[in-house]
Design goal:
The structure holds 2 protein chains of 2 kinds. Chain A is mainly α. Chain A is about 75% helix and about 0% strand. Chain B starts with a helix and ends with a helix. Classes of the chains: A mainly alpha, B mainly alpha.
């Protein structure tokens, strides 16, 4: 019986595991290997030549590619931090609005918010490029109504990256709202009842019950939001091409540009490995932070 | 902030009546405001696609077209072969979705219902790929697909995406809940394992299949980075999202806004319509994958 199960298991697992091995695990290992090679993407892997850590020295040097890479790394970091810092509180606030029973419309709100998550990022980028248009766009017009001076949005290095963050938050927040709602439904009503009897006001109940008990949800949301954020590509590729003045040059865009368009596969792979390591460090730090908080409150 | 905090309360019973009405009025206003802001970009997109070129260039912007017309839509097909792009997108999205459902059901079933060595290790390894940004493997993957001589073709877009970790994870979560007795009964009747899976197990996890259909279809309908990389300027294999970017560069700076918005509206329709039909399952599965883990 055990043997029959093993045979069946192998047969059942073969298609998915085989595909994921060939198209994810093998490329992953190749990326690691290529990071230490001089290799042109136009040629076969056999032409790769070992050069030690030279690629890493290059991407952190003060050469043109090094400066662009460091800018992309920094821009991606800023973009990710801003996205997470905006998405998490908004998702909790919207989650509460969807979850509450005092006013109608929660489910409609959820549908509206979540449907933006279905829209292709390319379409989002196109629409926002028109919304942001300094003269023909409606955003500066609306700002004008409330007395705010017109913004430069995508056309100035000071505001371009933030404009892309806003577009990203608009597209993604619905997904994280659904996660927050899921977390909220797990908090037992009895806790709120008990706090109410103790005389806690709504704000105190939010800080002492809702937020701490959403901890795991928020941790999961933060991890997903970080991973989604480093993938930003479409608005940059389509609208800003990394500019103005490198302001929106982000990693996914720049790695593709070096590794595919310029065919510097080794250099691009070293950048990809750096991205991967940064992600691992960031997520590990996040978990450590969450654990130390837990230990403190326990 | 207080209004939102109050929203955490689901039981307003022992409060004075007037305060409840005030709070629910404030909440209603907030809900409407958030929904309007969230819906605004898409509403603007549709409205602009119905405007005349002059209206789209007007300063200050015109919000509502004076006489809505579909001219921009008919012009889209002059610039890109829209029918062909839709067909390509449909092929990419449908083939990957069907394959992902089959491969995920099979692997999910094995992880949920079989005992074998290294089961947990293999599952953890597969799961870890869920957190891998696609750019990390893009460069070698491009070369591998080149070796398979699939560069520049729809198959090159599709083949690396016929299985994924998220699908396996989702199916395992749901198949675990299928009673073992049901499976045993079918086995005693002499059904093969594939028959057990597709005739007994699959029908009892239909909500998960619906959710995965939506996830996979929307993801692959919308995906841009990989098709752009692998198709390499082979325009008649372009999915709609890539054709859209060509609309933007057409007649750049001049009156192409209505055109771009018409194209965007067309591209957005299939995933959003599918979402509206299947959203119930989608939300359930986000919840079960996110929290109950």
């Amino acid at each position: 019986m055990q043997r029959r199960q093993t045979q069946s298991a192998v047969a059942m697992l073969a298609p998915a595991t085989g595909l994921i091995t060939v198209f994810v695990f093998v490329p992953m290992l190749l990326t690691l290997w290529l990071a230490f090679q001089s290799w042109s993407t136009q040629t076969g892997f056999e032409t790769a030549r070992f050069i030690g850590v030279q690629n890493f020295i290059d991407i952190f040097s003060n050469s043109s590619v090094g400066r662009d890479f460091k800018a992309a790394l920094l821009n991606t970091l800023i973009y990710t931090v801003l996205s997470v810092v905006l998405i998490l509180p908004l998702s909790v606030a919207f989650g509460l609005l969807v979850h509450q029973k005092l006013a109608p419309g929660g489910i409609v709100l959820r549908t509206v918010l979540f449907s933006t998550y279905m829209v292709p990022m390319i379409a989002v980028a196109l629409v926002f490029s028109k919304l942001y248009s300094p003269t023909e766009g409606p955003l500066n017009q609306v700002l004008g109504w409330i007395g705010v001076p017109p913004q430069t949005w995508l056309s100035s290095p000071q505001t371009a990256l933030t404009s892309i963050v806003i577009l990203n938050v608009w597209q993604q927040v619905g997904y994280f709202t659904v996660l927050a709602v899921a977390g909220l439904t797990q908090i037992p009503d009895s806790l709120y009842e008990a706090a109410k009897i103790d005389g806690a006001n709504p704000l105190q109940r939010f800080w002492s019950i809702t937020l701490p008990l959403l901890g795991n949800t928020l941790l999961f949301s933060a991890v997903i939001a970080i991973i989604n954020s480093v993938q930003v590509f479409e608005p940059v590729a389509l609208i800003t091409q990394g500019g103005p003045v490198n302001a929106t040059n982000v990693l996914t865009y720049f790695i593709r540009r070096v590794g595919i368009e310029r065919a510097q596969g080794g250099l691009g792979s070293a950048m990809a490995v750096t991205l991967m390591l940064s992600l691992v460090v960031a997520i590990a730090a996040l978990f450590a932070l969450a654990r130390s908080r837990e230990a403190k409150s326990a | 902030m207080t209004a939102i905090a109050a929203a955490a309360d689901t039981r307003p019973l022992e409060r004075p009546h007037r305060r409840i009405t005030a709070v629910s009025a404030a909440l209603t206003i907030l809900i409407v405001a958030v929904a309007v802001v969230a819906a605004f970009p898409l509403a603007w997109m549709v409205l602009t696609s119905l405007k005349t070129p002059q209206e789209t260039m007007h300063v200050p912007p015109v919000w509502l077209p004076a006489s809505p017309n579909l001219e921009a839509y008919s012009k889209v097909s002059d610039v890109v072969s829209i029918g062909r792009s839709f067909f390509n997108s449909a092929v990419i999205a449908l083939v990957t979705t069907v394959a992902i459902i089959i491969t995920s059901l099979m692997a999910g079933y094995a992880f949920a219902k079989y005992q074998f060595r290294y089961r947990e290790l293999l599952f953890a390894l597969l799961l870890s790929t869920m957190f891998l940004p696609p750019i990390v493997t893009l460069i070698p993957l491009y070369r591998i697909v080149g070796y398979l001589e699939l560069t520049g073709s729809l198959w090159g877009v599709v083949v690396p995406n016929l299985a994924n970790a998220f699908g396996i994870f989702l199916m395992r979560q749901f198949i675990r809940g299928v009673p073992d007795e049901l499976i045993e009964a079918a086995r005693v009747d002499g059904a093969s394992e594939l028959r057990v899976l597709f005739q007994i197990v699959a029908p009892s996890v239909l909500p998960a299949i619906a959710a995965l259909t939506l996830f996979a279809f929307v993801y692959h309908w919308n995906s841009y980075l990989w098709p752009l990389t692998v198709l390499q300027g082979n325009a008649d294999q372009y999915p709609i999202v890539i054709s859209l970017s060509r609309l933007l560069s057409y007649n750049r700076g001049a009156m192409n806004t209505g055109l771009v918005m018409a194209g965007a509206t067309l591209a957005v329709l299939p995933p959003v319509v599918l979402f509206v039909i299947l959203q119930r399952f989608f939300v359930d599965s986000v919840i079960s994958s996110g929290v109950k883990g």
